[in-house]
Design brief:
GAF domain-containing protein; 5-stranded antiparallel β-sheet; alpha+beta; single chain; 256 residues; Beta-Lactamase; 2 domains; two-stranded antiparallel ribbon
Length: 256
């Protein structure tokens, strides 16, 4: 058994005694997928995802167990709202046992409607942290509505601790504790090839950096401008980012 950061003994995936060769990203990604999938299974969830986040708005999806989990993260990233962002900003778990409730529709209109249309009925998000700094979120979803049992909730908390430990230990993130987790982890991870996978969205962060220079605004405001254009043009944030990086489109003052 391993001991979680919150002091619970954990009966989750065995993470001790494993060696991940420096610069070899495949074992690291395998460990992360095993940890996330174990949490998903032991909490009776239907899927899960792990996202790194920073106060500036930078995000990096590092694992999604299936297409629905990937989509749930994507629509939150595009809209700039949802339970993952609330869990990150508050540093507290956000439990949504029935996404059909009016309170969630009013709180996250785009997310709640799109998530239920994709088949998600309940979502449970837990912050990943080192000391007092939150650097990401574990998101679990179910296709049926309902609150987690006390045992399931405890397993979700322990699971978030385990997943956080995997990221910090095996992805070279242990020193990144100054509040800029996603940006620094993303930069370091891409240099080492860790995040170069089907889940990675580096072009969005790169594009936001370019737009922030074009508009002379913060990274967060640049993302907001990109989201606004994606909404107006009825396309994805990724498509806007691709056009920015390829210099097919630019932003001018007045778009923030």
């Amino acid at each position: 058994m391993t001991s979680s950061a919150s002091g619970h003994e954990d009966d989750g995936p065995e993470l001790t005694g494993r060696s991940v060769p420096a610069g070899d990203s495949s074992p690291s990604r395998l460990l992360l997928s095993q940890a996330c999938d174990a949490v998903t299974s032991r909490t009776n969830a239907d899927g899960g995802a792990v996202t790194l986040m920073a106060p500036s708005g930078a995000r990096e999806l590092v694992y999604a167990s299936n297409a629905v989990a990937h989509y749930l993260d994507d629509i939150q990233f595009t809209a700039g709202l949802g339970p993952c962002l609330d869990a990150f900003s508050s540093g507290q778990p956000v439990l949504c046992p029935d996404l059909r409730r009016k309170e969630y529709e009013h709180r996250w209109l785009a997310f709640a409607n799109d998530a239920t249309a994709a088949g998600a009925a309940a979502v449970f998000t837990f912050p990943l942290r080192v000391a007092s700094t939150v650097f990401g979120v574990l998101e679990l979803y179910r296709t049926r509505a309902g609150d987690p049992t006390p045992d399931e909730y405890a397993a979700m908390e322990r699971g978030a601790d385990i997943v956080g430990q995997v990221v910090l230990t095996y992805f070279g993130a242990g020193e990144k504790s100054d509040g800029n987790g996603a940006e620094e982890l993303s930069q370091d991870g891409h240099r080492r090839g860790i995040w170069d996978s089907e889940f990675s969205r580096p072009q969005i962060n790169y594009a936001a950096g370019m737009v922030s220079v074009q508009l002379n605004v913060t990274f967060a405001d640049a993302l907001s401008a990109m989201r606004a254009r994606a909404y107006l043009e009825q396309c994805s944030l990724t498509e806007i980012a691709d056009d920015v990086v390829a210099h097919r489109t630019t932003f001018t003052q007045g778009e923030t």
